[in-house]
Amino acid sequence: MKAGIRISGFGGQGIILSGVIVGKAAVFDGLNAVQTQSYGPEARGGSTRSEVVVSDEEIDYPKVESASVSLIMSQEAFYKYASRTKREGLIIYDPELIPDNKIEGNFKLAEINATRIASELGTKIVANIVMLGAFNEVCSLISKDSMIESIKDSIPKMLDLNLNAFETGMKKVNIIK
Amino acid sequence: MTNDVIRLLGKKDLFIQGDEAAVYGALIADCRFFAGYPITPATEVAEGMAIWMPRLGGVYVQMEDEIASIAAVIGASCTGVKSMTSTSGPGFSLMQECIGYACMAEIPCVIVNVQRGGPSTGQPTEAAQGDVMQAMWGTHGDHQLIALAPKSVQETLDLTIESFNLSEDYRVPVILLLDAEIGHMREKVVLPEVTTVKVDERVPATIGPDKYRPYRTGFTRPSKVPEFAPFGSGYRTYVTGLTHDKRGFPVTTSAEVHEELVRRLIEKVQDDIDDIWYHETSFLEDAEIIVVSYGTTSRPAVSAVKMARKNGIKVGHIRLITIWPFHYEKMREYLKNAHTVIVPEMNLGQMFHPIRETVGKDTKVVSAPKIGGAIHTPYEILKFIEGDVK
Amino acid sequence: MSFISNDIVIDKYLRKDMLPTIFCTGCGIGSVMNFCLRAIHDLNIDMNKTVFVSGIGCSSRVPGYIYSDGLHSLHGRAIAYATGVKLANPELKVIVFTGDGDCGAIGGNHFLHAIRRNVDITVISINNFIYGMTGGQVAPTTPLRSKTTTTPYGNIEYPIDLSMMAKVIGAPYVARWTTAHPIQCMNSIKKALQKTGFSFVEVLAPCPTSYGRLNKMGNTLDMTKHFKESTINIKTYEKMLAEGKDTDKMIIGELVDIEKEDFNTKYKKFCGELK
């Protein structure tokens, strides 16, 4: 088993942290994981991408070429990365951030209003965790227990809020096809 | 002390960046002095040391520039404390004069260079392997130091410990060559078993101050590495970057003294090259094409070699872990039956040169360069392999 | 101040197998080394726990002659090397010998930041207004209009004042004397060695071979006389100021003597608070 997960959006959305949480969760599951990232020189804003390769074998090439799963949190990232998902791969996106979300091809699609849900829960900075909840619901790659363990380990502050965001993401994800 | 660190770190399995792994490796190796200056993509090493040094009775200091950083590291090491600094290309260039000093005065120190795109300020956040030649030949004059290049976060931790061991054993600066990719990459890391981790110390003076000569070798043991008396131990040693005699005193116009010293500085490492030269090989038995790689580039290289093997191509792989000193003799032996050697590097061909120097004119050496920041994809390397099938 | 014979200084404090020194006839560096060793003798400092650090230049050869640990580092870097020594082993007494070029030009930034950091070291800067070891080139301290081999028509750059720089950056001890003031100089070195934190003693010293010859200043005696005439004691200067007068003369004397917590003390304290 080998899967590549690409999380993309803009700086400040917690894109890289999301990658770290997924990678760490995979390690908690006893898998190998490599997380890499790419971002511009600016500390906030700018496009950001985080990639995680998960495998039960040793991982040689650490980068994701065609992603098994794409989590997308900006229009610009959607244009750039949605089509770089594998055939029959999964694309999860936030439709309110990505109004132009038509895509041709053999993909599984799921929507989650992560940013709005996060705002309703108290702060939009947990939108990335809502996305991860949606990811966990529609994809069985990593166990829920390990994801929660990883969230606890990675964000010790505001734990209840983050766990709530994760659960809400799991509940509210809308599978389109 | 090492055991305390592993216990202090708590969890055994970590999911951390290469830069952080260098920090943990340094802590386990008993490094207790760090001086540095912020620079992308190596800053996380300094940040990690700033957290840990004060908690472990060590010293962290942010100096005014990279020259001051390596200078303070050498000063600290003279007192017997294991010392390290970290930097990237521009800072590494500034450190070169002091690296030469550490070679000449035989002061152990470890320099972590997280390589980024150059020349000059270049690409601060992008990976490169452009400092390979500079690591060995950046400082002036004949000398020999040691440089290691890990391929993973786990190996970064392991080789940081080994960098300290080699630096202490041979009293040379050791350069750990990471790159922006591995420095910022997160991967699973397993901390070493407390009982098995090997941590070396420099050999102390075994004779009293009256008979001790700081640069006398072969007195009580066969090694060409002199015994070390730290500042403050009553041995009253004099350390200089000038050509010096066995007492450590400057003798700058004697050809004999200079030649004996400089040759010994090189031989003390070269004589033990079989022990220092770490490498890995795979599929070499029947290989007609051999890929030689090091550092991060080894990862797509291994993928490419595996794919080519599946396609029935007789291709083998050598991964250099120790990149300096370069083992010409062993490499000649490994490469003798290959018609083609492919050298993928994140530069326009640097390790390519010693490899070309190694083989005869019947063997073709192909540089497979990539610059700009992205690491090679396996397919890019595979294309080079397929292109040379006869 | 106790007076001891040269024999005692040589016997107890110098590496006899390194003698004679490389210093020219009439050079002031030997005198400053002598002042420093006598100060050390007076304070009964343990030479087994003393490290002399230097960079490159005539004055930087001093540690080579002193029987203690010595670190002859690179041009300009003495203070940075010394910072490493002192921080790694706070028990050691660390004394830097440096020149005006080593300290004020190539090493200027390290000088500035070691003061800012308040590292507990003593820096003795021998200022001869010229680069002596390379044969008499312009230094950052060379006075305007002075001739050197690289200012053959006279120097047009304003000189730096090392002691005033140390003072404004906040060094807790700063003194400046000339080799014509041996007792005052020894006393200041003694105070500097006892000060916790960055202490700085600048000593104006004759270089008859380069500076003196190129500027037609005659022998060491003439140069020493010139030092006396071209400097003014701070106490006299302050009186002048009070009377509304000013002077172009270089101010000598004890310029700063305050208490200020040093890096090692602060570091040790905050490490203690972490546990």
Structure explained in plain terms:
- The complex is a heterotrimer of chains A (177), B (390) and C (275).
- Chain A contains 6 helices and 7 strands.
- Chain A is an alpha/beta fold.
- In chain A, helix 3 packs across helix 6 (159-172) and helix 4 (127-138) packs across helix 6.
- The two termini of chain A are 24 Å apart.
- Chain B is α/β, with parallel strands linked by helices.
- Chain B folds into 2 domains: 2-190, Rossmann fold, CATH 3.40.50.970; 278-387, Rossmann fold (3-Layer(aba) Sandwich).
- Helices cover 37% and strands 21% of the residues of chain B.
- In chain B, helix 3 (43-52) links the parallel strand 2 and strand 3.
- In chain B, helix 2 packs parallel to helix 7 (153-170) and helix 12 (328-335) packs across helix 13.
- Chain B is globular.
- Chain C is 42% helix and 18% strand.
- Chain C has helices at residues 6-13, 29-43, 62-65, 78-88, 100-106, 108-117, 162-169, 182-194, 208-214, 220-230, 234-242, 263-274; strands spanning 50-54, 69-72, 93-99, 122-127, 130-131, 137-138, 173-178, 199-204, 231-233, 250-257.
- In chain C, the strands form 2 sheets. An 8-stranded mixed beta sheet of chain C has the order 2-1-3-4-8-7-10-9, sandwiched between helices. A two-stranded antiparallel sheet of chain C has the order 5-6.
- Chains A and B meet through helix 1 and strand 2 of A and strand 9 and helix 11 of B.
- Strand 10 of chain B pairs parallel with strand 2 of chain C, so a sheet runs across the interface.
List keywords for this structure.
heterotrimer, A: 177 residues, alpha/beta, Pyruvate-ferredoxin Oxidoreductase, domain 3, seven-stranded mixed beta sheet, 6 helices, 37% helix, 27% strand, globular, C: 275 residues, Rossmann fold, eight-stranded mixed beta sheet, two-stranded antiparallel ribbon, 12 helices, 42% helix
